[in-house]
Automatic annotation (TrEMBL):
Keyword Transferase found: no
Name of the molecule in the record: MFS transporter
GO cellular component: plasma membrane
Pfam families: MFS_1
Length: 418
């Protein structure tokens, strides 16, 4: 009821803009998580190891900061809407090309290019959304917007669960290639953006007053922004380690440590995503009352008691409950990030700052899954339980601690002024 009330409070322009940005992030995540679900199948197809294919996720994440900077500059200069359209067409094109990669080397290159396009989408889309939406209820909409990422993961898991087992071994194209071909459909969203979404009123106001990216980014301004920039990179490093540390290797962990068949793996990932969706909305709503910092700290610390159920259970049912509760907390904390990051970012660089700090944090955390596999092979005989459990302990405390050091900026007004 609360969600419907908040959505009804928006006018048609605001609803269309929010829906487009939500769907863009959903379809972006959908393509990314297809890779994490298909690691084993891709390794088998290219006659290589899972650890080698996991490098593709590193290259995707490593290129995202460059994409955030490039597309952020374009969004500041040419507008949020046309830049977001170009983003979506680009990552759809590279996602489709990945389906036809003939070698593991070409696959790596295409996933790096996908990461370049993917890197711009979050920052540009979040700037367009929050510069169009009202300040009241921003925490709720932040939680809902960020869960586009979760919905993308859910759709990828659902497709894997329903389609992958029936494609495998048919003698046609490899099952994972068909999955990546389906992942190219987001390009159609560009048409919706073209005809249903308007430009950010904040960007238009700044342009009407003669402000420009070049004028606002003097060296003195950059130095003034540097402390906030470094702080947000540290915060986003902890957040990305929190998310990727509990998600990227989870399908492989379920298959390897618990010997769960692919169909049940897809179902368990879907259950975790339902928890994430509920957590993002609930904690985003809570941040309107607790403040952004209080809600993030609470959600991060509450992930700790979920570890035994999430990683060490001995039945599919209990693993499902653990996965639901873990992602309720992890993505609950994450649901507050779009609003918190935009509220902490200076106005003249709002299309660049959130996306670039987010993606630089992603870059620093991008080796997480590779390190998890290496540590498991070295200390646990290849078993991932202990490594993933320690990951949650360390990064949950890091998220809570770094958040506590920052300032509260809930509800700050956005405008076209520097």
């Amino acid at each position: 009821m609360a969600m419907m009330r908040e959505l009804r409070s928006l006018n048609a322009v605001q609803r269309n803009t929010f829906f487009a940005c939500f769907l863009g992030w959903t379809l972006d995540a959908f393509d990314y998580f297809l890779l994490t679900l298909c690691l084993t199948a891709i390794a088998r197809d290219f006659h290589t190891s899972i650890e080698t294919v996991a490098e593709a996720t590193f290259w995707t994440l490593a290129m995202r900061p460059a994409g955030a900077f490039l597309f952020g500059l374009m969004a500041e200069r040419y507008g949020r809407r046309p830049t977001l359209m170009l983003n979506i067409v680009s990552f759809s094109t590279f996602g489709l090309a990945s389906a036809f990669a003939p070698t593991i080397g070409s696959f790596m290159v295409l996933r790096a290019l996908f990461g370049l396009a993917m890197g711009g989408e979050w920052g540009v889309g979040a700037a367009l959304a929050f510069e169009t939406l009202p300040a009241e209820g921003r925490g709720f909409f932040s939680g809902l917007l960020q869960e586009g990422y979760v919905v993308g993961s859910f759709l990828a898991a659902a497709l894997y669960w329903l389609l992958f087992p029936h494609l495998h071994g048919t003698g046609m194209l490899s099952a994972w290639r068909v999955m990546f071909m389906i992942g190219s459909l987001p390009a159609l969203l560009a048409l919706y953006l073209r005809f249903k979404v308007e430009e950010s009123p904040v960007w238009l106001a700044a342009r009407a007053k003669g402000q420009s990216l070049r004028a606002s980014l003097r060296w003195s301004e950059l130095v003034r922004y540097l402390p906030a920039f470094l702080f947000l990179i540290a915060l986003m490093t902890a957040f990305n380690s929190f998310s990727h540390g509990t998600q990227d290797m989870y399908p492989t962990f379920l298959q390897h440590d618990h010997h769960i068949v692919p169909a049940h793996v897809g179902l368990l990932v879907m259950i975790g995503n339902l928890g994430a969706l509920a957590g993002g909305i609930c904690w985003g709503w809570a941040s309107e009352r607790m403040g952004r910092k209080g809600a993030i700290i609470a959600a991060a610390l509450l992930a700790l008691p979920m570890v035994p159920l999430w990683a060490w259970s001995h039945s599919v049912v209990l693993l499902g409950v653990g996965g639901f509760l873990m992602q309720f907390m992890v993505q609950g904390a994450w649901g507050i990030v779009p609003a918190h990051l935009n509220e902490l970012s200076p106005g003249p660089v709002r299309a660049i700052f959130p996306g670039l700090t987010y993606q630089l944090g992603n870059l620093i955390a991008s080796r997480n899954n590779v390190f998890q596999v290496m540590l498991a092979n070295r200390f646990s005989g290849g078993m991932l339980k202990m490594v993933m459990s320690v990951t949650v302990l360390v990064v949950a405390l890091a998220v809570a601690g770094i958040t506590a050091l920052g300032r509260e900026a809930a509800g700050v007004e956005f405008s076209g002024e520097p």
